[in-house]
Amino acid sequence: MKIFVCVFMIFLSLKAEDFITKMEYAKMLYSNPRGIGCIACHGARGEGSVIAKYKHKGKQLELVAPAINELSKDRFFKALKGTDSVMPKYFLTNNEIEALYFYVTSEVNR
Ligand code: HEC
Fold first, then answer.
1. 74, exposed or middle or buried, with CB in 10 Å at 0-12, 13-18, 19+?
2. Which of 32, 38, 96, 102 is most buried by a 10 A CB count?
3. Residue 9 maps to a domain
């Protein structure tokens, strides 16, 4: 009986996943991946933002998170697989990167 209930619960949870759309999943991942949300630096829709303004040797400088909503998929993957200087290193699966790419480049998102 216990096993039956267990299998039934798994079945239910698999079904429940259908209720969140690909877009909802992608949006969730973008604002809350494992680590600091992309949204914090790249803006709500991947349009990019100024993270900080600072002075260096009397010059006013800006630290910018670039726009990521019009990149090729190749470049997007490379940035998330590699180690960039400022951006935190994420350990995302290809499916997760795919979902993030889908989110920031989607037309609905503009
Ligand atoms: C702490 C701020 C910060 C966070 C959080 C962050 N990024 Fe970045 N990202 C940057 C900066 C700054 C750059 C520019 C390269 C560098 O200096 O690291 C960058 C570069 C990139 C690039 C390459 C852009 C190009 O022109 O090639 C992509 C793609 C990208 N980020 C996607 C993401 C995604 C997706 C997430 C969430 C999983 C994320 N970033 C989280 C700051 C951030």
1. exposed
2. 38
3. no
